[in-house]
């Protein structure tokens, strides 16, 4: 059986697979190059100071952004960059499950789990109110609110078809999420000395506020193992809120206000992988095996190292996809809405940490 390329040409399946691999190669090599430089810089830091003050994860993001700012990767690089930023990122998150015990979730207690759910719901409501107060359309306000409250681009992509959002609203929301997601990774550790957070408290804060699971790793790995484990688990509970939220918006989409005199119908179907992404299931599956003792420590170590390398590579790809100049092209109201929503989420998260007495 072949793959039809045109009305007069049929490419054998094997050739099509080879062509796809060739299309991915330039972008993957570029991401590998950025990753190698980031790892080398971290190694130099360790030799010079005994401690990597800026982890390779963060260096990869910064270097990727720097490259993207002065040079736009051509068409031949884009497929590989997109593959590294999405598929490799998801694989890295899945593999992280091999080093995490689900017992930590139980140890967190029902109070924290309830607090995470409450934080997500309160953040969505308050963010939506801020966006609408600044004059953003209802659907874009929902996208911004869900992106900030749950998991950034993934939440935006899942909610957009359900509420019938315009492509320009989706693009604008995702653009700001990409930029602010990087800024959160770089700036969140400043809260440790400013607010006097312990490693445990910082892990909860990162899990409640940082957009994507791999970005939680980037924000917590430099702080310590406890912050990384707590942050990842809190973030996973937060991501699992995506399913109920998408279902809720699908039920109220027809009640959203008119835009340009037209009521937009919701599109798309609620597939299971939209409600719970496959990599979250993979993470939980490996974490369950690890918790049951079916993944020995001797195996979890190499898997953790591979996950770390793939995460750095994914961060390099994400950096290569961030154009900081997008902020200059977007309106001031959108800037205020997104940053204001994020500030509210930070405030709610800090209040939750204090209210629950997390030490």
UniProtKB/TrEMBL annotation:
InterPro entries membership:
UPF0324_pro
**Coarse class of the protein's main subcellular location:** membrane
For this UniProt record, the keywords arranged alphabetically read as follows:
Cell membrane, Membrane, Transmembrane, Transmembrane helix
**Location of this chain's protein in the cell:** Cell membrane
Q: How does it sit in the membrane?
A: Multi-pass membrane protein
Q: Name one GO cellular component term.
A: plasma membrane
Any stretches that span the bilayer, and where are they?
Answer: 23-44, 50-67, 88-106, 112-130, 142-164, 170-192, 204-224, 236-254, 275-295, 307-327, 334-356
> What protein family is recorded?
Belongs to the UPF0324 family.
Protein's UniProt name: Sulfate exporter family transporter
